UniProtKB/TrEMBL annotation:
Residues 36-55 bind DNA. Pfam families: TetR_N (PF00440). It comes from Streptomyces albidoflavus. Keywords: DNA-binding. Residues 13-73 form the HTH tetR-type domain. PROSITE patterns: HTH_TETR_2 (PS50977). PANTHER family: HTH-TYPE TRANSCRIPTIONAL REGULATOR PKSA (PTHR30055:SF226), HTH-TYPE TRANSCRIPTIONAL REGULATOR RUTR (PTHR30055). GO terms for molecular function: DNA-binding transcription factor activity; transcription cis-regulatory region binding. This is TetR family transcriptional regulator. InterPro entries: Homeodomain-like_sf, HTH-type_TetR-like_transc_reg, HTH_TetR.
Amino acid sequence: MGVVTSPKQDRSRATRQRLLAAAVACLAERGWAGSTVSVVAERAGVSRGAAQHHFPTREDLFTAAVEYVAEERSTALRALAPEGRAQAVEALVDLYTGDLFRAALHLWVAACDEPQLGARVTELEARVGRETHHIAVALLGADESRPGVRELVQGLLDMARGLGLANLLTDDTARRRKVVTQWTRVLDGALG
């Protein structure tokens, strides 16, 4: 039997989700310096007080936002049924080309200079990294008991992150497509 929620709980959940989506969008567009609780609240269409009710600190808001969207992406990836390894590689590379990656990058950079944020982001990144690696193994049909396979999968994710960084400055679609095609050939040869 499902959990019954009240209209007030539903509104609270909807407000929280609007705040999380607005926070990711603000980070992606404005960076850490330009993203404040007030800016996010305004974008989400709620009062600053409502935002602080859900997220007492700026760090709470932005780490929760990146975590929330990362979990949503993980759920979507787990549900993916790729038609071949090339589609799996492309889906994994796409993780690093959208607003979530841009927002996470701003959060990582801010964490380098803000100790109160650093520990939280480091823990979050480790958790998201482990989850992404597990999903990649499943999507690729990789057997990590074979020597070198774990490193090969991690190399794919590291390469995808680098492609995402390159894409931040210019549209790197054509080059990225060629790299994905070649990396798929390497994986096919190594994973069988």
